[in-house]
Amino acid sequence: MGYNKKPEKKTTDKKYVKKDFSCSVDKKCGGCQYLTMNYQEQLKMKQASVRKLLEPFGKTGAIIGMEDSFHYRNKVHAVFDRLRDGTVISGVYQEGTHNVVPVTSCLIEDEKSDAIINDIRGLLKSFKIKTYDEDTGYGLLRHVLVRRGFASGQIMVVLVLGSPILPSKNNFVKALRKLHPEISTVVINVNDKKTSMVLGEKESVIYGKGFIEDTLCGCTFRISPKSFYQVNPVQTEKLYGKAMELAQLTGKEKVIDAYCGIGTIGMVAAKQVREVIGVELNKDAVRDAIGNAKRNDMKNIRFVQGDATEFMMAMAARGEKADVVFMDPPRSGSTEDFMNAAVKLGPSRIVYISCNPETLARDLKYITKRGYRMREAYPVDMFPHCDHCEVVCLLQKNNVECR
Ligand code: SAH
Fold first, then answer.
1. Interval between CA 259 and ligand 1 midpoint (Å)
2. In 3-state terms, what secondary structure has residue 290?
3. 266 CA distance to ligand 1 centroid (A)?
4. CA–CA separation, 395 vs 372, rounded Å?
5. pTM
6. Ligand 1 interacting residues, C-beta cut-off 6 A
7. Is 219 a catalytic residue?
8. When you count CB atoms within 10 A of the terminal residue's CB, does the N or C end of the chain come out lower?
9. Alpha-carbon gap, residue 204 to 189, rounded angstroms
10. Active site residue: 219, 355, 389, 393, which one?
11. Which CATH number, 3.40.50.150, 2.60.120.10, 3.40.50.10420, 3.30.565.10, labels domain 52-66+232-397?
């Protein structure tokens, strides 16, 4: 984060835009582990490591990379602090510490959001807003979160304060919107706890609707400050597109979207199937999912709040069936009970979307001994310059030929 532009080098591969940047806080921030490696090398490395992990189960296709791998993050978070001489800084915590590394621009963050954060820093003095001191609890502004809908252009600014009152809030919003008229909503979030969590419980909207909307794969999603939303929308569309292709939907299927979040995968699928049931543990996410289905006038999808494993086991116990199961568990992966239940529902296809190839391989070892085989897997680079890699793979029931 915080970069100096170097002259561009010539490249022979036109598919990926190769820029050569360096970052002034790279070592301290620790966010981009692969920044010193060129992007095509990164892709090769991710491809090789996923291929090696999944080799015992089947074929891994070519990694889906980004054409322009910079400034892809639609969500930017900055922690505010001040130096001994009173200078206000904003940036990220140095890895493993609570020391703030100042960041004014970042290679992977949305540039507009970075500019807004810099201008908020500039406005604090004239509005006499003090930054919050974690040790003494003195001061007001703790964090700023900016989310931009890349498709809608809508921008949400969340000011995380140590106490609920922002003096001259209307004038502050006016001054900020004068600099950035694109800001569509400003929310105050109150976090008065000694915690490493960024957001607190209480919220008040001081400008606009309190949420933004964005479009993915032709569906519109409402995103409130606390909702989970994929941070790289360009790659998310490719990921979901691949997931739908692997699912080979014909319009007749009954589909389960397990670990569904705000319902994104299920809603994209709902346009191409008979019926979808989404299941998700987080109450806020389920509320958003239900609202999103209504907003898009989708009547063939419903959502259940609960543990995905318990839900699947209960379905299986009632003797219910499903044609396709999408599963997108957190980094820790799925459970043996979930997979046993999924097998009992008898889907001819299971599409497993994973943000952790290691737990994916562990789960594949289990499910491939229970009547399913992995037909194809595709790594998708959702986090360029960082050491994570997403994978989407198709598991097919052994006696079914559909691809
Ligand atoms: N499919 C969504 C969200 C994936 S993130 C998307 O693409 O945006 C994984 C989701 O699994 C999170 O929303 C998390 O709240 C949910 N989750 C975690 N454990 C769960 C469980 N045991 N049962 C159901 N959902 C769970």
1. 4
2. helix
3. 12
4. 6
5. 0.89
6. 228, 230, 259-261, 264-265, 279-282, 285, 307-308, 328, 330
7. no
8. C
9. 7
10. 355
11. 3.40.50.150
